[in-house]
Design a protein that fits this description.
The chain is of the alpha+beta class. Helices cover about 35% and strands about 25% of the residues. The longest helix has 21 residues, at about 240-260. The structure holds adenosine monophosphate and glycine.
């Protein structure tokens, strides 16, 4: 089949890389793609958020399957339009994508469906929000309701920090419309995991577990980012935990959406925390996690094209996934300054040398200017390896990264530290 992938980040590079290696796929087209994706797919210069141009592209290319990578076009209704035009699509319709597009919708639905999550309030009025912050005290969590590329969550250590965050969000300063409603959440403590599911109506197929490091700095310190590294499997997700996430989180939320007339076809991502008080849902996303997708695709042995088409055509029942044993680990290399402002256009060299060390380099925020590879985004590369143990995978990636020649890039030195410590203690 011919597959059209929408998007141009690290997640889409990993998806294209895996689709290219799928026996059922003979051609991958990617819009817009990136310089790394060019090796796996024919890239077409159509933006991932340009719905009209994407519809025209689909009409011209006639793909057998469209895989929508990022959340923005899903929330905008790209999947609805593609389905209406007769295409097989992996990605939810607008009504189901609201699960990610609106945290207030998502939290309320969790509450209605009895899905475990942190206590919360939704506010549009700053004074009322401040009142709640005063009553609940710090630490406390403030979230912009709308899409904010992973940056709309402030874990405030003091009441003042929380108050500043809600005032800033409600004034529309940092997050625009996405901050016109804020969620105030109880602060939870525990280990986090990413639990991803391929969903096709009532059929829910879990992927292998993974864990992401959202904080910018070593030791999980500093501000939240889109994700600075990830690995799979996450040892804290035992079979019992995986089962509980499926039965108490994924199934009830998919059923609650269906009751609202929003059938889910696509990828459901549950960010969960294992607290002393049991499992809690931190968030839902409606697409593959980035960077979780990178290690997951490196471990997946099954034909990705076949599975995603089966989901799109509602014949997922009975399909199983096969995973490579061992661990896969991805370290994100970001532009110095990210998640705040950074300088673009710096030359990046040494990618071939990194790959010669046995790592796969997924491009996230790169561009080519006069044939030279440069940084063009905050998160730029995802250097990924698979090995028999998580420690070995970690050593492989960090050894390979020494070959990268980009002085303006930085990365965390401790991705998967918890899993490595667990392995060491065995
Ligand atoms: P989210 O985008 O909602 O998953 O939040 C991003 C990150 O913020 C999570 O991965 C957690 O590390 C942190 N976080 C979110 N909600 C809470 C909470 N209620 N308590 C503690 N940390 C949280
Ligand atoms: N890595 C977290 C996310 O994709 O939202």
């Amino acid at each position: 089949m011919k597959v059209l992938v929408v998007g141009g980040g690290g997640r889409e590079h990993a998806l294209c890389w895996k689709l290219k290696r799928s026996p059922s796929v003979h051609e991958v087209v990617c819009a817009p793609g990136n310089p790394g994706i060019k090796a796996e797919a024919r890239c077409v210069n159509v933006g991932a958020e340009d719905i009209d141009a994407l519809m025209a592209l689909a009409a011209a290319e006639k793909p057998d399957l469209v895989v929508v990578g990022p959340e923005v076009p899903l929330v905008a209704g790209l999947a609805n339009q593609l389905r209406a035009a007769g295409f097989a699509v992996f990605g939810p319709d607008k009504a189901a994508a609201k699960l990610e597009g609106s945290k207030s919708f998502s939290k309320r639905l969790m509450y209605e469906a009895n899905v475990p999550t942190a206590r919360f309030e939704v506010h549009v009025d700053a004074d009322e929000a401040v009142e709640t912050i005063r009553v609940w005290g710090a630490p406390i969590v403030i979230k912009a309701s709308g899409l904010a590329a992973g940056k709309g969550v402030i874990v405030a250590q003091s009441e003042q920090e929380a108050i500043d965050a809600v005032r800033d969000m409600l004034a529309g300063n940092s997050f625009g419309d996405a901050g016109s409603q804020v969620i105030i959440e109880e602060f939870l403590v525990g280990e986090e995991a990413s639990c991803l599911f391929i969903v096709s109506g009532d059929t829910i197929l879990p992927l292998a577990s993974s864990q992401d490091h959202k904080a910018l700095l070593d030791g999980d310190m500093g501000p939240n980012t889109g994700g600075m590294g990830a690995y799979s499997p996450a040892p804290c997700v035992t079979d019992a935990v995986a089962d509980a996430v499926l039965e108490t989180i994924a199934r009830p939320i998919v059923a609650a959406l269906k009751q609202k007339g929003a059938e889910f076809i696509g990828l459901l991502y549950a960010g969960v925390m294992l607290t002393d008080d049991g499992l809690k849902t931190l968030e839902f996303n409606v697409r593959f996690g980035d960077p979780e997708c990178q290690p997951l695709m490196c471990r997946l042995k099954s034909d990705l094209g076949e599975v995603l088409l089966a989901a799109a055509e509602k014949r997922l029942d009975g399909i199983e996934l096969e995973w490579q044993e061992g661990s896969a680990l991805c370290v994100v290399v970001a532009s110095d300054g990210y998640p705040a402002a950074f300088e673009k256009g710096q030359t990046i060299a040494g990618i071939d040398a990194v790959e010669a060390m046995g790592a796969t380099v997924f491009h996230a925020g790169t561009a080519e200017v006069d044939g030279v590879l440069v940084n063009a985004g905050g998160r730029v590369l995802g250097v990924t390896s698979v090995a028999a143990s998580v420690k070995e995978a970690q050593q492989l990636v960090y050894a390979a990264l020494k070959k990268l020649d980009w002085p303006g890039g930085f990365y965390r030195r401790d991705i998967a530290y918890r899993a490595v410590a667990r392995e060491d203690n065995k």
